[in-house]
Amino acid sequence: MSYLLLLEAEYPLALLCIALIFGLLIGSFLNVVVHRLPIMMERDWQTQARDILDLPQPETLQTYNLSVPRSRCPNCQHKITAWENIPVISYLFLKGKCSACHQSISARYPSVELMTAVMTAAVIYKFGPGLAGLAACLLTWALIALALIDFDTKFLPDSITLPFLWLGLIVNTVGLITLFPNAFWGAIAGYLSLWFIYQAFKLVTGKEGMGFGDFKLLALLGAWLGWQMLPLVIILSSLAGAVIGGTLIALGRDRADAIPFGPFLAIAGWLALMFGETITAQYLQFVAA
Questions:
Q1: DSSP letters along 227-249, please?
Q2: Which terminus of the chain has a smaller tally of CB atoms within 10 A, N or C?
Q3: CA 179/CA 92 separation, integer angstroms
Q4: 108 Cβ contact partners less than 8 Å away, ≥ 6 residues apart
Q5: Cα 57 to the chain's mean position, in Å?
Q6: Cβ 103 vs Cβ 73: under 8 Å
Q7: Could you say which DSSP state residue 73 is in?
Q8: Torsion of Cα atoms, 131 then 137 then 143 then 149, to 10°
Q9: CA gap 193, 99 in Å, rounded
Q10: Got the DSSP string for 90-133?
Q11: DSSP structure string for 24-39
Q12: What are the pLDDT digits (tens) for 37-78?
């Protein structure tokens, strides 16, 4: 850690380059998490359902987790080699196609890698390479994974939200992001605020307006950022939902295909992490003027 602090002082650009490269690698891993974790959860649910219904389990069930089996082309099942898995570079070298069957590879993969790299470098630039920077990077990577999984599946995995809720409380016992009392009440207020909105909406309309995963995600953000940032997170998430949702509908997305709220909460949470104090200060200055 002291080496990184020295690097920041003497060669700040080199530190950001290291953060970018590391972010590319993390982005590649997040692509795996986003694709495989929902499948792993579905397999686990099926296993549990068979146990409850007293049905026989499949005799041969291939091991499937974040590391096994090796990544394959979904079209021809070609095993992705190491040189084909270099973040961004391999995609450009292969011209966005599988080396075996030449089927197009989604541009989302390098996009996630680049986005993660830029966001990681931005976090290190703001918080530095110390413990606060590491904690903020962990939160950033979790929010990226949660946003993409929820966008794809309309589900926010407890296996990410709950550990990171606790982690937010733990890192703030030493005040890395905010003071612990702010984090404690932020977790409580984050969950209950959306829970009350959910109950009120259901009482009025008879429908469920959001999922319980959204409550846990806002509790997570409260645990990391403190209760003071929750109003800003809710406002920013509403703005992000209006802009992004409207854009997707304009581009042809079916209005009946509901857009989950989790990605907008994740976007707002990261913006509050990076710029929350500045936005709040400018708003208060504007109101006082």
A1: GGGHHHHHHHHHHHHHHHHHHHH
A2: C
A3: 45
A4: 31
A5: 33
A6: yes
A7: -
A8: -120
A9: 50
A10: HHHHTTTB-TTT-PBPPTHHHHHHHHHHHHHHHHHHHH-SSHHH
A11: HHHHHHHHHHHHHHHH
A12: 999 999 999 989 988 998 888 877 788 899 888 888 888 988
- DSSP class of residue 71 equals -
273: left (phi over 0), alpha (psi -120 to 50) or beta: alpha
Tokens of 6: 């020295």
> pLDDT digit string (tens) for 175-222?
999 999 999 999 999 999 999 988 888 888 877 777 789 999 999 999
Tokens found for residue 161:
């939200």
Mapping DSSP onto H, E and C, the string for 201-230 reads HHHHHCCCCCCHHHHHHHHHHHHHHCHHHH
CB-side exposure of 67: number of CA atoms within 13 Å?
0
User: How many Cβ atoms from other residues are within 10 Å of residue 75's Cβ?
Assistant: 13
